[in-house]
Amino acid sequence: MLRLTDIKLDLNHQEGELKQAVLKKLNITDDQLIDFTVFKRGYDARKKNVITLIYTLDVETSVNDALLETFEKDHNVKVSPDMTYKFVAELPDNFSQRPVVIGMGPCGLFTGLILAQMGFKPIILERGQEVRQRTKDTFGFWRKKILNTESNVQFGEGGAGTFSDGKLYSQVKDPKHYSRKVLNEFVDAGAPSEILYVSKPHIGTFKLVTMVEKMRANIIALGGEIRFGERVDDIHMEESGDGQQVTGLTLASGEKIDTNFVALAIGHSARDTFKMIHDKGVYIKAKPFSVGFRIEHEQSVIDDARFGIHAGHEILGAADYKLVHHCKNGRSVYSFCMCPGGTVVAAASEEGRLVTNGMSQYSRHERNANSAIVVGIDPSDYPLVDGKEDVLAGIEFQRKLEENAFKIGGSSYDAPIQLVGDFLAGRASGEHGEVIPSYKPGVTYCDLSETLPDYAIEAIREAIPAFERKIKGFSMKDATLTAVETRTSSPIQITRDRESFESLNTKGLYPAGEGAGYAGGILSAGIDGIKVAEAMALAMVQSVK
Question: For residues 453, 447, 322 and 41, what is the CA-based torsion angle, rounded to 10 degrees?
Answer without folding.
Answer: 140
